[in-house]
Amino acid sequence: MEEKFYTVTEFNRLVKSYLDGNPNFQEFFLSGELSGVTYYKSGHLYFTLKDKQSQIKCAAFNYKYKKIPDNLKEGDSVKIFGDVGFYETRGDFQILIRHIQKEDKLGEMFAKLEKLKSDLEKEGVFSALFKKQLPKYPNAIGVVTAYTGAAFHDIVNTTRKRFGNIDIYIYSAKVQGVGAKEEIVKGIETLNKIPEIDLIIAGRGGGSVEDLWAFNEEEVARAFYKSEKPIISAVGHEIDNLLSDLVADVRAATPTQAIEIAIPVKEEIEERLQSKENLLKKTVQSLVKTKKEKLQTLRSNYILKNFQKTVTEKNQSLILKEEKIEKILEKILIDKKHDMEMRVEKILTLNPISTLKRGYSITKLDGKIIKNSSELKVGERVETIFNRGKVTSLIEEIVE
Q: Does 163 have pLDDT greater than 70?
């Protein structure tokens, strides 16, 4: 067989001639999902069109003159019309776009969601029989949300206002886009493994339907359902219930409302305890007064006048009981106060924010807390969080 030998130029020209002359590669439709959408000031548009297995580069030159939308974004489902293009000089293969039409991805998403809701409802996943009660006085809560989002700051600030001694464990997770559902699931699973945590809040602030869609994913809904600790769905939105709302033990309209539901106001608890203490004192005092009055009546009775000694002894016995009751009450109040002080001291000691205030810091790489120098490599950038502020550092040397 005769060997075929080409120069690069000759080969590229041959490929271009074949593609240009093949009608199968001209004027056809493709559908897929957009990735890497880039609009250039030159008036050109570049992106990658992909499906579950493959992807292909696309270009739309002078896209405005072709009435191509200027708001295409990552994840949009589209149908394109164009031709195969082969840039002979560089050997680049791409689709030259003539027209782009957005597909109704949202309608398709909602249709799939309704089917999933129906299936989960048949399984009993939404049943009130499986809803867990929130603890009345939690010592620590776990939160799955974006560390940099407004929801995180609202949760921390509201918690500090209501009961400043509560420990907050934060699992920073993506709450929208690619990878969000996996991180939310991982966050719920991780916080469930921490014994100190009494309940979990998972959510985010408001956004578009697409932004919130991670909380409509089946994997996220099942993670809520499987949570061994009571869990609150706290996604700020105006649309109908998300899947996480239906599966969670409690639904909150916003992350702030989740804290208002889960955490009592410390001052109100103290006021109720003081009110009960006052009521108990009044009850005891009233009982003693009643007994004294009854005793006085008995003492003045004609039949008992000759039993002065007996009356005196009973009076003394009553006084001793009164003193004993008051001592018991005093001990109960002292023990309760001591217990509360110990719990507050423990909570303050465990509070990661307090640790930062004592001069310690937290070092993270890509959001992961670094515990050993062996987890780092020279050239990586790490973030160090102090009590106030944070710094970014470049690793130049690692000493084991």
A: yes
Task: Give the whole-angstrom CA distance, residue 203 versus residue 151.
Answer: 8
Q: What is the pLDDT of residue 68?
A: 87
| Pair 114, 234 in one domain | yes
Rounded Cα–Cα distance for residues 199 and 143 (Å): 9
Output the furthest CA–CA distance in the chain (Å, rounded): 143
The rounded percent of the chain whose pLDDT value lies above 70 is 92
- At 204, list the tokens: 């985010």
Q: Is 391 left (phi over 0), alpha (psi -120 to 50) or beta?
A: beta
CA distance 253 to 304: 71
Which tens digits make up the pLDDT trace of 249-297?
999 999 999 999 999 888 777 777 788 888 888 888 888 888 888 888 7
The whole-model pTM stands at: 0.50
What is the rounded CA–CA span in Å between residue 397 and residue 348?
36
Radius of gyration of the chain (CA): 35
For residue 378, pLDDT over 70 is answered with: yes
| pLDDT at residue 140, rounded to an integer | 95
Residue 302 has pLDDT above 60, yes or no: no
CB 74 within 8 A of CB 37: yes
Residues 254 and 116 in one domain: yes
184 burial (CB, 10 Å; 0-12 / 13-18 / 19+) is buried
Predicted confidence (pLDDT) at residue 303 exceeds the cutoff of 60: no
Distance CA 14, CA 20 (A): 10
Residues of the domain holding 270: 266-352
Is the same domain home to 124 and 89?
no
The rounded distance, in Å, linking the Cα atoms of 397 and 400 is 10
- Per the structure, the count of domains in the chain is 4
How far are the Cα atoms of 34, 69, 96 from residue 86, in angstroms, in the given order? 21, 24, 9
